[in-house]
Every structure is written in C-alpha cells, then in structure tokens.
C-alpha cells in the first residue's frame, strides 16, 4: 500500500499521492447551476486526496439531467466554482471538474428550461429518474441533428475554458455510466446513420472529437476522460463489438496525450489489461465496492497509476490519514447522497474530531 503515498505526475501537475476522489453527484447546487454554498468546504475537507474529481457538471443547459446539478458555462458558475478551486488549492490539493452531459438521462421536470432531453437517437433509456414529484419514467429524448452534435462538441470546449477560468486544474470528460458520450458508443442508444453512428469508428467519433477539442482549448495535459467499458446501466448495451470499440477508442485517445484516463471498471479483466497496454499515459482505476484490504493492490501491481474511491471518500474527509494509520472508516449515509444540506455532506467527522467526540 505504501506506493499509494508516493507522488505522481498527472498532466502538468505533481500530485502528493496516488489516491483520487471519484466524481460524485451531490445535487446541492443552486437552481441556476451555481455550486452550493457548502461545496467549497466539502471539497476542501478532502484536499489531502492527490486528486479531486468533482461531481458531474453540465457544459450547457441541455447537458443537465438531474435536479440541482452544477454547471460550468455562465459567469455565475465560474464565480461559484472559484470558491471551491481556491479552497482546495489553499490546502495543497488539485481539482479537475468533471464535464457531464446527461444526454437522454434527463427529465424535463428537473431543469430550469424544462426542455426535452437530447441524445444521439430518439430512444428512451427505459428507466426512471427522481424528479420534484417523485420517481418518473424518463421520456424519449430528441435526436440531435448532425449540426447540433458539432455544436455540442463546442459546448464541451467552451465549458472546459470556463473551468480553467474558474481555477480548475483541468477537466475530466464524463464518458462513462450511460451518459451522452457513452450513448454515442452504444448501438442500443445510437441508431444514427450519419458519421456519428454505425461503425465503431463512427460511434467513437463524438468522444474523440470532444477530447481533441478540449485538448486544443486548454492543453492535453489538463484534459482527461472517464470510461466504463461494458456497463449495462440504463439501457446501455455495447454489444459483442464492445471490447473492440474500446480498444479502438483508447488507442485513438492515447494519441492525444491526455492527462489521464479514468476507468470505472465493470469487470472485464482481459479488456482492462489491454487498455493498460494501449494507454501509454496515466491510468486511474476505480473498482466499485473495492474492499478496504484491496486498496493499493492495483497500483502495487502496476495495473494503475492511481486508484480512485467514491463512497469511502464521501464519508471520510481524512481518507488518506485513515488509510495510513489503519484507522476505522465512517460509513456513508446513502439517504444523504443527493440533495439536502450539510448533513451527510460536510458533517462527516475527521479522525481527530471523532476521537474528541
Ligand atoms: C452519490 C454518488 C454519485 C455519483 N456521481 C457520479 C458522477 O457524477 N460522475 C461519475 O463519473 N460517477 C459518479 N458516481 C460513481 C463513482 O464515481 C464511483 O465510480 C462509484 O461510486 C464506485 O466507486 P466506490 O465503490 O469507491 O464508491 C457516483 C457515485 C455515487 C455513490
């Protein structure tokens, strides 16, 4: 486990350790997408992580799918995020803002504009989502025109610029977990007949164009991407060609020399080993539900350069100290994951506070 606590280069930065906070939506932003008042405190509490990846943040109006998620495209968003980046930097941490376009994982009741969601194709995900009036079926989205797909690439690019203006160290493109980028990858969500649908090359095109556009805008060494090869969440089915698609996509992304690739692992170990070979740069690995005793194993084995953790970091602001000292961890309160106030957000005690209590 000791290798976890050694510095590592990520893009243009040197991080103090090889532990990353996985991106986690907390739905506590203001209605206009400006981060909530407690966001800076929440992230600063966790600044001893080598890298913080923020909650998914929409690059445009249409990118929002859930209630009260933050954005990064208006002046108010930039000013709001500035509080977080300043607070994290003051404690020596590093922060990448995750750019998340929800695509078809969106309900009109959740957004200020109440528009129909947009996606590669007009195919509903076949699932439900929380709205102000409770769980509701997600309606079919509207298919983006080819011109609109190109404009969406520019929305990502603009948001990346704004993230840098807000003081972020970089951005992570959310290409995982069944949201817009992955909707382009999966034939179950993408039935397009233009250059963004059909063949592996065409389905991968959107992800590559977004990454290339952002790298051009803010530098490849501040641009990263997260992928979840093979996920079956929310109507995503990448089919038998899935592994081949990822081998192609990762090899193409590798040419861009991005800051890192973040894999949200879904269980295909052979594909993961291939990705490790195809990707010459920094790899962050997230294994959902990883047991505490396994923390550090992937870095020790050389399968990953950093490991990311979600729920354990959510519940333990001093996760790094607790690991180093083999101290017990707070349990995450799932009922406070999304929305609400400081409860289950900024009130998880650090070790010293817990011992004093
Ligand atoms: C409350 C919550 C919100 C999440 N939101 C996001 C998100 O916005 N973007 C993302 O890529 N993953 C998101 N995830 C997935 C996590 O990044 C991570 O992959 C997952 O929790 C598994 O890791 P863990 O077992 O260490 O928590 C979320 C997970 C949780 C628990």
From TrEMBL:
Query: Which CDD domains does the UniProt entry name for this protein?
Result: OYE_like_FMN
Keyword match Manganese = no
Q: Which co-factors does it depend on? A: FMN
* Alphabetized InterPro entries for the sequence: Aldolase_TIM, OxRdtase_FMN_N, Oye-like
One Pfam family it belongs to: Oxidored_FMN
GO MF term set: FMN binding; oxidoreductase activity, acting on the CH-CH group of donors, NAD or NADP as acceptor
Q: Which residue spans traverse the membrane?
A: none
Which species does this protein come from?
Answer: Trinickia dinghuensis
Q: Which family does it belong to?
A: Belongs to the NADH:flavin oxidoreductase/NADH oxidase family.
Organismal lineage: Bacteria, Pseudomonadati, Pseudomonadota, Betaproteobacteria, Burkholderiales
Q: Which SUPFAM superfamilies match?
A: FMN-linked oxidoreductases
Query: Which GO cellular component term is one of those annotated?
Result: cytosol
Q: Which UniProt keywords apply?
A: Oxidoreductase
Name the record gives this protein: Alkene reductase
> What sequence ranges are listed for the domain NADH:flavin oxidoreductase/NADH oxidase N-terminal?
4-329
